[in-house]
Design a protein that fits this description.
The protein is mainly alpha-helical and 63 residues long. It is 81% helix and 0% strand. It has a domain at 22-63. The chain has helices spanning 4-13, 21-33, 35-62.
Amino acid sequence: MMKCKEATQLLSEKLDRPLATKEKVSLAMHTAICSPCRQFGKQMEEMREISKRYIKGKDATTK
């Protein structure tokens, strides 16, 4: 069984690269039973979206 440390690492890497099938399956199994890791994944995705919106807004004001 995957440990939380490994899961959070993969949740972070998932934002930057496609995960291998084995990684996806292991991560899905872990997050299905681990609500803290599930929440961490949601927070990482939210932070990515907030950062994108911030950069877009900043680009619009610098032109």
